[in-house]
Amino acid sequence: MFATSDPRFEFPLTEADVTWLNSLFSLPEEGETRERKEYRLLTEEEREYFHRAVNMLKNDTTVSLNKYDLLANIHSRSSSNTAAHGGPGFLGWHRVFLLLFENALRQMIPTATLPYWDCTLDQPLSHPSESVIWSDLFLGNGDGEVNTGPFRGWNTQFGFGLLHRQVSSLRHLMSVHDLRNILEEDFLGNISYPDTKSSKNLEQLHNNVHVWVGGLMRKIEIGAFDPVFYVLHTFIDKVWEDFRVHQRSKEIDPTKDYPEFYGRRNHASFAPMGLGNLVVIDGISDVWNKNVVYRQPSCGNSGQNECGSKFLRCDHSTWTCVSKTKDEVTKSINKDKHKDTTLSRTLNSGLKELDNLYIPSLLNSGISHSVYSDFLYPLKDRQSTAMYSENVSQSSALQKAKEIYMSHLN
After folding, report:
1. CA proximity to 87, closest of 189, 183, 4, 199
2. Where is the Tyrosinase copper-binding domain (predicted)?
């Protein structure tokens, strides 16, 4: 999984490239909270903004390649890649890189914020490849060329063809057990390369997910050309932030916790990070995630969306949230459409009967046509809203309409 140099990625940057990349090095402003939610917790509007901002970067060719691919290429270059993988600098490097990408998104749409993909919500499924994450509502299909969802038909750079994946063919997703193993440790060196065993090595656990997704994600140098990269790494960053909170509970300062034995020289404290003028030790500073908060789903909410999302369900045997499958969500959507159609028919039938029974008598009682048009029809609109919020029968719909009209007359 470790990167090797590929001359294709080392093209010279133009002045426009450098100017734009430098514009991304900014911290969240004071008072500006960036809430990074689990992908399935996003509102429809938030999800649309995220997808649109990513595509706007992809379509912006004012720099080499395009803005999305130019930034992804930074992850491919040997000047930065060697400090990004295979050592304790992994987490800090990617934290800075995520902030650059999020800043790029916000240049497109100021309210756009990175969501994260908590793959432990998919891991309990019999077939995690059937998760709703791999539907057109989120990342698109995971079997071959991506031809559904917001990133369908994307061309990639350097001759890698259309965006493609092969989920679930090799390796496995991270589990809740993996997260518990991580949080049992106290120091960064205990969850990092070079010598931490795989069950507690956060970078190795993340590598498994890269391979599980397949396609471009399977190879480190080109993984960032697939948007899956960013939502996965935002999750890894959340896990690291949880770990840092755990450290503070043990009175360990995470901003001073860098292992004395770091392995490869590119992970030495003062080795160049390959991102601007930063050095590796800068990655463990608190400044990069200042005013960044993570929101995760949890069981316990009442009602249909008990995990805070119609795309999740609560497994009451473990009291944890689990992703719904594509089929479950499709059936739920079709059921809602059928319910809406039934309510609409009920409402229309009730209002038609209301018109036949009441309107003539109201007009005969001296109510003018202007009152009829200016007041009664808006009332029917309000009554329509009420009917949709209550699962009522045709007769009760009619009764509700009668009560509204009679209360006005009184």
Report:
1. 189
2. 85-102, 226-237
Of 230, 274, 219, 270, which Cα lies nearest the Cα of 84? Answer: 274
- Which candidate, 354, 355, 343, places its Cα nearest to that of 384? 343
The pLDDT tens digits of the residues spanning 65-98 come to 999 999 999 999 988 888 999 999 999 999 999 9
Mean pLDDT of 106-123: 98
Can you give the pTM of this predicted structure?
A: 0.82
Q: Which CATH architecture has domain 7-296?
A: Orthogonal Bundle (1.10)
In the chain, what are the domain boundaries? Answer: 7-296, 330-409
Which is more confidently placed, 22 or 408?
22
